[in-house]
Amino acid sequence: MSGVPHHLVRWIGLAGSTMLAVAAFLGGALPDGDLRPTPLTIWQGPNGPLIIGLWLFGTAAMAVAWWVLRHRVPSARWALVTAGLWLLPFLVTPPLGSRDAYAYACQGASYSAGINPYEHGVSTLPCPWLDTMSHIWRDTPAPYGPLFVVLSGAVVTLTGSLLGSIALFRVLAVAGVVLTAACLPVLARRCGVPEGRALWLALASPLVGVHLISGVHNDALMVGLMVAGLAIVVSRPGRPWPLLAGGVVLGMAAGIKVTALVVVPFAALVAIGGGFSLRALLRHGTPVVGGAVGMLVGVTLAAGLNLGWITGLSHGNEVIAWTSPPTAVGQTIGYLVLPFGLHIDALPVTRAIGMAVLAVLLVWLWFRARTREPLWHAALALTATVALAPLFHPWYWFWPLALLAATAQRTWWFSVVTVVSSFLVLADGTGLARYTKTAGAPLMTLLVIVVAVRLVRSARAARRPVPAV
Hints:
By secondary structure, this protein is mainly alpha-helical. It has helices at 6-27, 39-44, 48-68, 76-87, 100-112, 146-159, 162-191, 195-203, 206-214, 219-235, 240-256, 264-270, 278-302, 308-313, 325-337, 347-369, 374-388, 398-407, 412-422, 437-463.
């Protein structure tokens, strides 16, 4: 399809986003929808085949259109106009692919009523919209950063209704996407990546429309602030006050979701105006790190909260899905020993190993980044964070995708992950990983083995001395 005209690709993608918008109205994550659906109950329900067909063909149309142009975008302006056109239908739809919007509203209601959402679940109030939330999250503390808790409380206070709250959360998501679009070219120019390609890869995939705009996930705002903070640091290396401002913006991103802290050590390297030295790192990196940490601590204290979001993060481990490689390995081990009459829960071990490997990888990537491009290594650090976490949701992939789009020279591998991730969740939020674990877990485990072997071989090849000519 490399010869398909650009204007035709534009209309194919728009047709796909329109089909997904219709699927959202017919069978999205509606407030009165079934909280425990299965693919079979969806198929047998009202308009079931139509809903699934619209979701399947709509996602396929957007994914194919995005894939076809990933290396031949006419211009940055064309990429922005087309991506914006594809996002228009999602501005007015009910939530697609997730019920997290209702959790945001309930946690905001708790905070606005004086309840610390890090200490109590939303059923404590109880939330006036409790029936819209998935049962698993009603008694768990909020896993989000303190700034987002404050924003959630302000949203509920201002609107006073579920529909108004979702609309305002969507405004915040759009603001995050716009911020990404405005600041990503700065990172792309730094890394020698065409601006049009970077904007296209980051903004035109189905993940953005379905999960960030329609699904109103706070990941959009987190990534927007993260990209903006990095852009400030990139634009003013060696300048203390701009570097402090960049660090503060990165701290705001961490205040939405703490994952943004992963890029802060790499931003400290970007802040160095010349070559790396310990003195230069302390002089120029300190404002960045200090601004980020100071902002995160300051908003926590100002909001009257504590560090409960750290323990709140662990509750995500209650979801078991093979889309997380460490979880898939643990599931596969359990399947392999079943024929021998053994029942082993290997998940705690494989997940712990995954976190240990992640810690080592982050340190190694930072040391490599001292003499290489820090932004590229920051993108790899976010990729490792997503890959080795105990839980993977499709919208998590937007974290590294935004930076990979602006820093990577080879795009096929993360483009494949993006397309596959787009098909993991049905319109109403039903995760397909739950119903495909017996096949998905072994396949993911096999992929982990293949990737590990290739990385080891690549590392050995890099150590071999180059023969003299």
